[in-house]
Write a structure and sequence with these properties.
Layout lengths: L1 H10 L2 H11 L5 H18 L1 H18 L5 H10 L11 H6 L7 H4 L11 H20 L29 H6 L2 H22 L10
Helix pairs in contact: 1-4, 2-4, 3-4, 3-5, 3-8, 4-5
Length: 209
């Protein structure tokens, strides 16, 4: 749940929404829309499965606003199709688990570094093949114009408006503080930099001491 919620928070932030809206403008035809949303979904899901699920859906929504003739059913399916590579990406639970010291199967197989799983030649080859073939496969599934099901872009507009509260409580001010959010984010970046500088490119579920 934490991974999914964190991925949603990141993907739905104003920063990423602006990026997705700008990238959606690159698609000029239904075919380009299907190819683009599939590639973005693959990239995002390889980085993190929770992030990828949300990014794919939000990006499909932005594309549907701009390419009004795209088949909405196939567009959404393409947005989620990138999920098939998540376990071969940076968020794969098993590769990260067995790369962690004292994991449940350590007495049987020892610790297996991510260089032998996520970043192994065979895994990267499979990921590359999927990156090359999946967008084309989705593109070939496009229905004929007379069979295309579209969506009214007006239905995709965000209708929820946040009511501005004049007298905010201290908790509400902290919750909406940009400064506090930037500080917490900066601390996370500092931790990551320190981790990779001191321990190398060591990915697992629990940092070893």
């Amino acid at each position: 749940m934490i991974v999914l919620v964190a991925g949603h928070v990141l993907a739905s932030s104003p920063f990423f929404k602006k990026i997705l809206s700008s990238m959606a403008g690159l698609a000029k035809s239904p075919g380009q829309a299907i190819l683009l949303v599939t590639v973005i979904s693959l990239i995002a899901c390889w980085i993190n499965w929770g992030f990828g699920l949300v990014i794919g859906a939000l990006f499909a929504k932005e594309i549907a606003k701009k390419v009004k003739t795209v088949d909405y059913r196939l567009l959404i399916a393409s947005a989620y199709s990138g999920f098939i590579i998540w376990h071969g990406g940076l968020g794969g639970s098993i590769p990260l688990s067995i790369a962690t010291e004292n994991h449940p199967f350590a007495n049987m197989m020892g610790v297996v570094p991510t260089t032998e799983t996520i970043f192994s030649t065979y895994n990267l080859f499979i990921i590359a093949v999927i990156f090359l073939t999946l967008p084309l496969l989705n593109r070939f599934m496009m229905p004929k114009p007379e069979d295309t099901v579209t969506v009214d872009p007006k239905l995709l507009d965000d209708e929820i408006e946040v009511e501005e509260v004049q007298d905010k409580t201290p908790a509400a001010r902290l919750e909406n503080s940009v400064t506090l959010s930037m500080l917490v984010g900066a601390l996370g970046v500092v931790y990551l930099v320190n981790h990779f500088v001191t321990k190398g490119f060591d990915l697992n579920l629990i940092s070893s001491t």
